Amino acid sequence: MTSPNTNKSTGSNSDSSAIPLLEIVDLHVNVEDKEILKGVNLTINAGEIHAIMGRNGSGKSTLSYALMGHPRYKVTSGKMLYKGQEISEMSPDQRAKLGLALAFQYPVSIPGVSVSNFLRKTVNAVRGRDIPVKEFRLELKALMAKLGVKDEFLSRYVNDGFSGGEKKRLEILQLSMLNPSLAILDETDSGLDIDALKTVSEGVNALSKADTAILLITHYQRMLNYVQPQFVHVFQDGKIVASGGSELALELEDRGYEWVTSEMQPTPGTGPNATKTSSSSSSSSPAVVGAK
Length: 292
Ligand SMILES: Nc1ncnc2c1ncn2[C@@H]1O[C@H](COP(=O)(O)OP(=O)(O)O)[C@@H](O)[C@H]1O
Ligand SMILES: [Mg+2]
Description:
By secondary structure, the chain is of the alpha/beta class. It has helices spanning 60-68, 92-98, 115-127, 133-147, 164-178, 194-209, 247-255, 258-264; strands spanning 22-31, 34-44, 49-54, 73-82, 85-86, 100-103, 110-114, 157-158, 182-186, 213-218, 231-236, 239-244. It is built from 8 helices and 12 strands.
């Protein structure tokens, strides 16, 4: 099968079983006229957990920004289909309403805006209706208890003077409130001590149980001790060069990234599917996903 039809939203909210949640095909993205993504292929189905690992500067954050529609990241060719709809031309809030959410690698602070106001505005905007304050509080408090976020958090300004761990907890709290169909977590593990890492991971696992697909972008394997991906992809120089199961993460931890290029470069048919771009739109999934 090729990608599910390019024509707009046909059947997107009925019988979605045949349509991948996210299908990225040969995606090229420029940042300030420099090509950063050079043919990314990736397919994610509802409820799956995928990890993308790769060196700094390989383009992982660029992929997450491109998915969310940051205006600086220009799609020059390829496709990004979400629930069967092309999203490249959509605004970030349209994408959020479709169910995409991103936890940023570097969350920004918003002095003057309290956490509780910020969360309520965001959640109302994405859900498209004003949730009664009481109902909102109840939902929020339950999640805060789970994520080990203290009450005093709510009246503080967003990320203003927050520690690294507090910022990441807030990101997960926000994601959980949004209840997206795909949560993208960009280096959510960075800067976390072991306790924070555990609680944040529990939050991610709870999201996953609620049938949210997860795209976990990470440089290190350690978060994958707590959040188990079914699929691991290696990102290099703007594209996915290898994919496999969770054992691939351990191998990367063990051996670094260098061996991937020499041993796993496109030799279709051996090991977890090494990924080739383009010209693969016929036959099965062009994207990826190594067996397992
Ligand atoms: N706003 C930007 N302006 C110019 N170059 C950028 C910008 N954002 C990212 N890049 C470049 O794109 C490449 C990939 O960066 P990034 O996606 O942040 O990688 P990663 O998240 O894997 O560390 C790097 O070479 C980086 O310098
Ligand atoms: Mg990054």
